[in-house]
Amino acid sequence: MHAPAFWWRDPGAAAALLRPAAALYGAIAASRLGGQGARAARPVICVGNPTLGGAGKTPTAIALSGLLAGMGEEPVFLSRGYGGRLQGPHVVDAGRDTSAEVGDEPLLLARSAPTVVARDRPAGAALAASLGSVVVMDDGFQNPSLSKDLSLLVIDAAVGLGNGLVFPAGPLRAPLMPQLARTGALVLIGAGRAGDALAARAGLPVLRARLEPDARALDGLGDLLAFAGIGRPQKFADTLQSLGRPAKRFVAFPDHHRYSAADAARLLDQAAAERLALVTTEKDLVRLRGDAALARLADACRALPVRLAFEAVETVRGLLAAALQRAKR
């Protein structure tokens, strides 16, 4: 879905009309947060976000996995597999599975560490525990079925919490305070007053981080036709701009968009007509692969890789080490 524009502005008439529905949704979500989940056989580190849409959870999970591996642990990712048809538990095979089967994010995660997809989180955690020493959950913060040893909430500092209201009046997945009460630290990605304001009032450790794009992926390309179907597509356009490679044409799709043959034909035709090079996100490119109808587009476009870098790496290591120690008592 495309996030409504009013979510990211001060509350107005549209948000006011939806407040009764938001109150009901928020009450249910808050009650679910209070549930006691099953304990996994291994420590569970959860990477979530308080709002709907993308904030950078997957790059954060991958960065944490790298730190855990450097600490001598054997991390295993656990994901719901949003957008995929497999119920799981299933160990992702990045060379054979497609996004239609396991979702797009698990295919990115599986490049870094063993990855399990499962609608049933405790069952998925049981399988993940057999493959490594610590489970890293990509999303699932608001799901109460599995107990977490450390939960991190990821926030895009440029937009923060938007209008601060609960869905559907705003982007929050649940009322803010019950979410913060179950959070070990905030991961604030990028810069922005919205993020700074939240950090000042959250009363939690704040781990600042940035997304670092690999500009070498654009070497040899001319003018760009960029497209993205992520939580906030404009972030991709802004990233290209920051690299001094602004897109001549930019096409935004909804988050987790399932590309059609018609989408592919339009993008290819426009690129050919204007002599533009196609560029997209890694997450979008994995959704194109494995579908014969999209093969031409997948072959024609290039992805811009990004990695997440924490500013205070030792602080993050300390939080992880403390969580592992608590879990193993």
Structural features:
2 domains, four-stranded parallel sheet, alpha/beta, 329 residues, Rossmann fold, 13 strands
What would your notes on this structure say?
With 329 residues, the chain is of the alpha/beta class. It is 37% helix and 19% strand. It has twelve helices and 13 strands. Strands 3-4-2-5-1-6-7-8-13 form a nine-stranded mixed beta sheet, sandwiched between helices. The longest helix is centred in the N-terminal third of the chain and has 21 residues, at 13-33. It is globular. It starts with 12 loop residues before the first helix and ends with a helix. InterPro entries: LpxK, P-loop_NTPase. GO terms for molecular function: ATP binding; lipid-A 4'-kinase activity.
Shape type: globular
| Overall number of strands | 13
Largest beta sheet: what is the strand line-up? 3-4-2-5-1-6-7-8-13
Biggest sheet record: 9 strands, mixed
User: How does CATH name the architecture of the largest domain?
Assistant: 3-Layer(aba) Sandwich
How do the SSEs run, as a string of H and E? HEHEEHHEHEEHEHEEHEHEHHEEH
CATH class annotation of the largest domain? Alpha Beta
Structural class: alpha/beta
- What count of domains describes the coordinates? 2
* Strand composition percent: 15-25%
Poorly predicted regions:
none
Instruction: State the helix count.
Output: 12
Mean pLDDT: 93
Radius of gyration: 20 Å
Question: What is the terminal-to-terminal distance?
Answer: 43 Å
What name does the CATH topology of the largest domain carry? Rossmann fold
Helical content (DSSP H or I, runs of 4+): 25-40%
